[in-house]
Amino acid sequence: KMDDDDDIPQLSSHTLAALQEFYLEQQQREGMKTSQGFNQYSIGSIEEDWQLSQFWYSDETALCLAKEAVLAAGKGGRIACVSAPSVYQKLKEQEGEDFSVCILEYDRRFAVYGEEFIFYDYNHPLDLPENLLPHSFDIVIADPPYLSEECLQKTAETIKYLTKGKILLCTGAVMEEQAAKHLGVKMCKFIPKHSRNLANEFRCYVNYASGLD
Question: Which residues form a coiled coil (predicted)?
Answer without folding.
Answer: none
